[in-house]
């Protein structure tokens, strides 16, 4: 596998563009046409049979993939799911539901807090542990009962891109594996498998929007703050979009569930606070528009990532970026890719060290 930059200016951009291949490799390496329990390691079937709930623990970008997975596990598989950052999980007294699987998610497999969470969790409290990791033979891989290895390949950019989206592929496969034990219809399983198979194409179509996203990114260069909004499963997508922007462009970015805008952050919206909305096609945009109506006079500006079939068009102070039309389950991945490109272009134009942002490390192996 090549870790050369090739024609790309930065590893981050190279890794963004590698996603169609990485997503396909992650799905195909272990699945093909159906999702076998054995994709999660020896003994997965027995452990999965006993799972009644899932506790996800992770840090940073990997925490955000866990947040997305919670929607899938609860909505599609009917499995209760909690998600917590490792540095909180490990330091509090918890009450564990019986039948809970501990699921850690980590690109490196070495993050100190996540590893400590696994070690301290108390094996007796869980039916088993599963890790979704990108690095084989890492500590989390060695110490977990079950393992799913994402096939992102080496990720060099400190800001995680292809590791995140391949984690989501693994998590959707995991949702099917648990769902079929919990009454998920065969047609639903097939629909999810089909979406996973077509995913690389939708991501490719998103990469083709690169020039449009670059153009949109120019508005962010002079700004110091930004808000990212999403509802439901797109709220963690907004969180990941905000994290990416702050990590590499040093613009303060905060994510809010869209409905909370009017409970505080709306007071801050002015011409130094662009609002990004991950709003594929629901009624969210109409609500946001009426919220923002009030701040237009102060220069409030909205950037909306919406399904191209939703028929939204740009208007003064509302810029719509039409996204590929794709199945619901593909959207968290597809929209994330667009937000990765947005952050990348803002950072490059600001002249930051995109692959090695200040003060951050690729792998945080000490507390
Ligand atoms: C660091 C990296 C992030 C990463 C996080 C968790 O903060 O800069 O990109 O998401 O660690 O790392 P992990 O390897 O456990 O996914």
TrEMBL record:
Q: How does the annotation summarize its subunit structure?
A: Homodimer.
Q: What is its main location?
A: cytoplasm
Where in this chain does the record put each SIS domain?
44-184, 216-357
What EC number(s) are associated with this protein in UniProt? Answer: 2.6.1.16
Annotated catalytic residues: 362
Keywords noted in UniProt: Aminotransferase, Cytoplasm, Glutamine amidotransferase, Repeat, Transferase
Q: Carries keyword Repeat?
A: yes
Q: Where in the cell is it found?
A: Cytoplasm
Q: State the encoding gene.
A: glmS
Q: Name one GO biological process term.
A: fructose 6-phosphate metabolic process
Keyword Hydrolase set for record: no
How is this protein named in the record?
A: Glutamine--fructose-6-phosphate aminotransferase [isomerizing]
Q: Which GO terms describe its cellular component?
A: cytosol
Provide the top EC class.
transferase
Q: What does this protein do?
A: Catalyzes the first step in hexosamine metabolism, converting fructose-6P into glucosamine-6P using glutamine as a nitrogen source.
Please provide, alphabetically and separated by semicolons, the GO molecular function terms listed in this UniProt record. Answer: carbohydrate derivative binding; glutamine-fructose-6-phosphate transaminase (isomerizing) activity
Q: Write down the chemical reaction(s) this protein catalyses.
A: D-fructose 6-phosphate + L-glutamine = D-glucosamine 6-phosphate + L-glutamate
């Amino acid at each position: 596998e090549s870790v050369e930059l090739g024609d790309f200016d930065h590893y981050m951009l190279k890794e963004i563009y590698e996603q169609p291949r990485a997503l396909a490799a992650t799905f195909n390496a272990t699945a093909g046409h159906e999702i076998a329990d054995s994709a999660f390691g020896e003994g997965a079937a027995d452990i999965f049979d006993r799972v009644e709930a899932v506790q996800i623990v992770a840090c940073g970008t990997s925490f955000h993939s866990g947040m997305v997975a919670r929607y899938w596990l609860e909505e599609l598989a009917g499995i209760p799911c909690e998600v917590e950052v490792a540095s909180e999980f490990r330091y509090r007294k918890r009450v564990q539901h019986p039948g809970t699987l501990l699921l850690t998610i980590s690109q490196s497999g070495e993050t100190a807090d996540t590893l400590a969470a696994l070690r301290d969790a108390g094996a007796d409290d869980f039916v088993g542990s599963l890790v979704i990791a990108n690095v084989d033979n890492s500590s989390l891989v060695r110490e977990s009962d079950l393992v799913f290895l994402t096939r992102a390949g080496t990720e060099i950019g400190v800001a995680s891109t292809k590791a995140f989206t391949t984690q989501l592929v693994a998590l959707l496969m995991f949702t099917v594996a648990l769902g079929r034990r919990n009454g998920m219809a065969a047609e639903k399983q097939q629909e999810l498998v089909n979406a996973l198979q077509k995913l690389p194409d939708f991501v490719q179509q998103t990469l083709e929007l690169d020039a449009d996203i670059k153009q949109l990114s120019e508005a962010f260069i002079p700004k110091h703050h930004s808000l990212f909004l999403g509802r439901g499963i797109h709220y963690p997508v907004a969180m990941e979009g905000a994290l990416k922007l702050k990590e590499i462009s040093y613009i303060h970015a905060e994510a809010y569930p869209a409905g909370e805008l009017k409970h505080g952050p709306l007071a801050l919206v002015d011409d130094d606070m662009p609002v990004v909305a991950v709003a594929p096609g629901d009624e969210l945009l109409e609500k946001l528009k009426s919220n923002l109506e009030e701040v237009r006079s102060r220069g409030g500006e909205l950037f909306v990532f919406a399904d191209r079939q939703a028929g939204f068009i740009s208007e003064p102070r509302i810029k719509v970026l039409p996204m590929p039309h794709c199945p619901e389950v593909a959207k968290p991945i597809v929209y994330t890719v667009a937000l990765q490109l947005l952050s990348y272009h803002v950072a490059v134009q600001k002249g930051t060290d995109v692959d090695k942002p200040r003060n951050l490390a690729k792998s945080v192996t000490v507390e």
